[in-house]
Specification:
Rossmann fold; 5-stranded parallel β-sheet; alpha/beta; about 675 residues; 6-stranded parallel β-sheet
């Protein structure tokens, strides 16, 4: 039977997917072959993009969740001109633009880094929220669709519950997700691990669900048309597909639907590569080809896409002429501009908790930064992101005029959604919770660091001083874990994350200033629950002195003459050092107190400055309410770190200070012991 050009295009994707994995001797061909029909119809007939401008702000976005199906994505993006056949031949090789799992590369049509299952489609939810937020401000001019692609494994990942619940609750009718349901996963059939009714689950969350043959082009088209027209709900298209669609063995018997084809070259799985390529209409000796009729089809479709994008730009220009202020604002949003804010003029209460200082700033941002979106995982009144909420309002189904997202008790979902917002562009995402629950967020934080996304994390209740809530709520090891990201470089050679733990309210002003200025990596603000004594001013106003926090570490106070010891801490512990220094002075011990909100920033300063703060030859004593390893970068091999060596305990934080030795009196004693005085 003669196949039409659309069937041949899908088969072409299957051949290229097989060929990439075969040549690399590594990869996942089966799923890519099963998804070929949907991805072809989507890209050739529905997805709006501009081949001449991959970063066009009003393009539809496609988020791939199962990153192992990268051969499918790279193949269709070769049809659109984003990759060359030579690029495909370098799949999974050093220095190639076709890594094993896709990495963010918008200019090549890759909208998200994917690999950890479940996060890709959750990022799509974030992008859909960003689109609704912008459409609420700029009208129908700025409306587009967010497409997501999920697999059986992604459906199983717990994060899918948070994404599904949130998208349905908010009525994200701009979100269209294809579920590649082939009942096969890496090591088993899905029947070995699940028996749930996925369709009913999503319907219960408020999605419109359609079930189709995932290889029928007519059914795919019909489902996508209905999805595009949906006005109320997000849409899930469940496509029943076959793993390794088109595979045969040496005897030319079907080799479809095999678990073995999931994660290895088809020849290793037991299929015949050459006979499968031939049966699909390709050249077994030269499988890296685009069929001439397929190439012509995509050339024609690309011309249509260019014309659509140009027509939109003409509408945009006419709108901009009538709405110059809104046009400038839209441009500013996508440029990542932030209004000028005089942080030195932001008044803070004396001796306040840094979470409260952050609330003061967030309240200001709600009025000053019109494209900021703040989220909290059911802790807004505790992490004090409600400072923003009080000047805004939450998102509701059908109403995205506000700017606050009640994410619910779903920290990982919230973090991945924030990543999706950042990937979409045009908005500044902020999300808050207790620092101890950053553990739940870490997989998404890692992806934010890998992609270089400027998400802002507000992590409060930063130490054992959480108090009576006990060790489950008291972060001890978390700061050491997250500060490792300051030591890890991204692929641009930058510290992959900026981590800031301010020592008082004025430092919190500077920390937020740095966070807003950081447009290339995620930023963590680690904030206190309890009040902290405002640090000494050192010959200037405290807010002026605190501007030095931008150096990562700086001298807060110093005795006359050369110090006997340099005492270093961040956050709450700096005030404890001030208490200790007073006691040490009475015993004739001269001190230098250093506040170190960010070791990563400090390491970026020139040597002269670093040595002016951490002068070689002077003993170093560090204090941390976390693991001692947190401060080893400052202490060095000869220094001393006084820190936590166990989980915390349930008691009032003042009692814990006494029992655990975090008092000025005890720290002074430990310093003298360290100095042998």
């Amino acid at each position: 039977m003669t196949k039409n050009v659309n069937e041949r295009a899908a088969d072409n994707i299957r051949i290229l997917s097989m060929a990439m994995v075969e040549k690399a001797n590594s990869g996942h061909p089966g799923g890519a072959m099963g998804g070929a029909d949907f991805i072809h119809i989507l890209y050739s007939e529905f997805l709006r993009f501009d081949p001449a401008d991959p970063e066009w702000i009003n393009r539809d976005r496609f988020f791939l969740d199962p990153g192992h199906m990268s051969p499918m994505l790279y193949s269709v993006l070769t049809f659109t001109g984003n990759y060359s056949l030579d690029d495909l031949k370098q799949f999974r090789q050093w220095g190639s633009v076709t890594p094993g799992h896709p990495e963010l590369d918008v200019k090549r049509g890759v909208e998200n880094t994917s690999g950890p299952l479940g996060q890709g489609h959750t990022m799509a939810v974030g992008a859909a929220i960003a689109e609704r937020f912008l459409a609420a401000r700029f009208g129908r001019l700025f409306e587009h669709k967010i497409y997501a692609y999920i697999s059986d494994g992604g459906i199983q990942e717990e994060i899918s519950q948070g994404a599904g619940r949130l998208a349905g609750h908010l009525g994200l009718n701009n979100l269209i997700m294809f579920y590649d349901s082939n009942d096969i996963q890496l090591s088993t059939e899905t029947s070995a691990v699940t028996s749930e009714d996925t369709a009913d689950k999503y319907r219960a969350w408020g999605w419109r669900v359609m079930e189709i043959d995932g290889h029928s082009h007519d059914q795919i088209r019909g489902a996508l048309r209905m999805a595009v027209d949906e006005k109320v709900k997000p849409v899930l298209i469940i496509g029943r597909t076959v793993m390794g669609k088109g595979l045969i063995d040496e005897a030319e018997n079907s080799f479809e639907g095999k678990t073995s084809t999931h994660g290895q070259p088809v020849t290793h799985a037991g299929a015949s590569f050459k006979k499968s390529v031939a049966a699909l209409g390709g050249d077994p000796e030269n499988p890296f080809l685009i069929f001439s009729d397929v190439r012509k089809l995509y050339e024609e479709n690309l011309n249509i896409r260019k014309a659509e994008a140009q027509a939109w730009r003409e509408r945009r220009d006419a709108w901009a002429a009538e709405n110059p202020s809104a046009a400038r604002q839209l441009q500013s949003f996508f440029a990542g501009d932030v209004p000028d804010i005089d942080f030195n003029a932001v008044a803070q209460k004396e001796n306040d908790a840094t979470r409260n200082a952050s609330a003061t700033l967030l309240s200001l941002f709600a009025e000053k930064i019109p494209n900021m979106i703040v989220a909290s995982a059911d802790l807004a009144n505790s992490d004090k992101t409600d400072g923003f909420l009080k000047k805004s309002k939450p998102f509701m189904k059908g109403d995205f005029s506000g700017a606050f997202l009640h994410a619910g008790v779903s920290e990982l979902t919230m973090a991945a959604v924030a990543n999706g917002m950042a990937l979409h562009g045009g908005v500044i995402p902020v999300c808050g919770t207790f620092f101890v629950f950053s553990d739940y967020m870490k997989p998404a934080v890692r992806l934010a660091a890998l992609m270089g996304l400027p998400v802002k994390y507000v992590w409060t209740h930063d130490a054992f001083r959480v108090g009576e809530d006990g060790p489950t709520h008291q972060p001890v090891e978390q700061e050491a874990q997250i500060r490792l990201m300051e030591h890890l470089k991204n692929h641009h050679g930058e510290n992959s994350m900026l981590v800031l733990r301010p020592a008082d309210a004025p430092e919190t002003n500077i920390a937020w200033k740095l966070a807003l200025e950081n447009k290339t990596t995620p930023t963590a603000l680690i904030l206190s629950r309890q009040g902290i004594k405002t640090l000494p001013a050192k010959g200037a106003s405290r807010i002026e002195a605190a501007t030095m926090a931008a150096k990562g570490a700086y001298t807060v106070a110093e005795s006359d003459g050369s110090p006997d010891v340099i005492m270093v801490a961040s956050g709450s512990e700096v005030a404890t050092l001030v208490e200790a220094a007073s006691l040490l002075a009475a015993d004739g011990v001269k001190t230098r107190i250093v506040s170190a909100p960010s070791e990563g920033l400090f390491r970026l300063q020139d040597e002269k400055y670093r040595q002016s703060v951490m002068t070689p030859g002077i003993p170093v004593f560090c204090l941390t309410a976390g693991l001692p390893v947190t401060m080893l970068g400052f202490a060095g091999p000869e220094g001393k770190v006084w820190g936590m060596e166990s989980f915390g305990f349930s008691a009032a934080y003042g009692v814990l200070d006494q029992k655990l030795g975090f008092t000025g009196e005890n720290v002074a004693k430990e310093v003298k012991k360290f100095l042998n005085k």
